[in-house]
Amino acid sequence: MSEKNIEIKQDDHIRLLEALLFASSDPLSTSELHERMPEGADVGGLLLELQDIYAGRGVHLLDIEGKWAFRTAKDLSSYLSIEKQVQKKLSRAAMETLAIIAYHQPITRAEIENIRGVATHRGTLDVLMEMGWIKPGRRRETLGRPLTWVTTTAFLDHFTLESLMDLPGMDEMKSAGLLDRRPAIQTVANQDDLFSGQKTMESVEGLTHISEGEDSEIDDEFSLKEAKG
Amino acid sequence: MSEKNIEIKQDDHIRLLEALLFASSDPLSTSELHERMPEGADVGGLLLELQDIYAGRGVHLLDIEGKWAFRTAKDLSSYLSIEKQVQKKLSRAAMETLAIIAYHQPITRAEIENIRGVATHRGTLDVLMEMGWIKPGRRRETLGRPLTWVTTTAFLDHFTLESLMDLPGMDEMKSAGLLDRRPAIQTVANQDDLFSGQKTMESVEGLTHISEGEDSEIDDEFSLKEAKG
Amino acid sequence: MMQNSAALQDDGAQNAVDEVDQLLLNIEGYEGPIDILLELSRAQKVDLAKISILQLVRQYLEFIERAKTRNLELAAEYLVMAAWLAYLKSRLFLPQEENAEEPTAEEMAEALQFQIRRLEAMQKSAERLQARPQLGQEIFGRGAPEGLEVDIKTSWNVSLYDLLKAYGAIEKRKETSNYDLPTINVMSTEDAMLRLTRMLGNLPRKGMSSVWTTLDSFMLEDISGDRLYSCSVLASTFTAGLELVKQGKLEIRQEGLFRPVYMRSIPVRGEAQDDAGK
Question: CA–CA separation, B138 vs B149, rounded Å?
Answer without folding.
Answer: 8
